[in-house]
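Review session, final week

We close the course with one last complete record, chosen because it touches almost every idea we covered. It is Lytic murein transglycosylase B, a protein from Aquipseudomonas ullengensis with 317 residues. Go through it on your own first, then we will talk.
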Amino acid sequence: MLGQSAVAVAGDYEGSPRVAEFVAEMTRDYGFAGEQLTVLFNQVERKQAILDAISRPAERVKPWKEYRPIFITEARISKGVSFWNQHAEALARAEKEYGVPAQVIVAIIGVETFYGGNTGSWRVLDALSTLCFDYPPRAEFFCQQLREFLILSREQQVDPLSLKGSYAGAMGLPQFMPGSFRAYAVDFDGDGHIDIWNNPVDAIGSVASYFKRHGWVSGGSVVSRAQVKGEQVDSGLTVGLDPVKNVGQLRALGWSSADVLRDDVPVTAFRFDGADGEEYWMGLPNFFVITRYNRSAMYAMAVHQLSGELLAKRGVQ
């Protein structure tokens, strides 16, 4: 497929030594045809807007009371219920096969792309090439994703110039990076082709596959609201997201919960600035799995709470 749309035209990377070195590597190590790849990269466009976007200083991190309303909206809930109803069979099958609740799968797709409404308009090949060849701070990561993208294009027999995604190269309804696609995406409708761009059934199965492979515990809880007291409470807070403490250790620091939790359960302990004041939470193993999708406690909580709203709204219809 690499040669189907290839036309020898001058492009931003024509004659680039870095591209030539990359092409040589793909030819030597991965069995690609060097001439075809050279012609392909001649059509790639370097996107300054992508470099500007990824280099922009991070915005002020919003507190939970501002972050939550972005994702927990009536529009996102209603659209999610419609998506769930439309794909109920595939969602039920994914829940049965992978143990991941339907509402969690729907919430991921809802948070990532508003159920496929905003999957990105950049050519993935342009995005990954720009970041591989012209963004030194993360060149190693994006060059690896570019390798994965070319391999998946070959495996799936699709024109790499035809696939679109985010400015960072995330793709389809679930916004998988190419490496995640190759590791976790599945042909959930059995048509012999994995399509997370246009096929919600494959997207649903792929999200469930990702969660299962990252340790989702079927039937397990996600978070537990904590009550806190004492002077040592904040020393229980987790630095980062890895669950380095357990419930018993938090109890000793003044944390408690109305939920019945074993002392040996590992937790990610965090505090949010909520609309009604400070909120203390214990993120359980399934919470940590959600953070593997996006390394953010607020992201994981938004997915979790949206999933609850979806379940409640669909249940009363």
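Two points worth writing down before the exam:
Residues 3-10 have pLDDT under 50 and may be disordered.
The longest helix spans residues 297-315.
Good luck, everyone.
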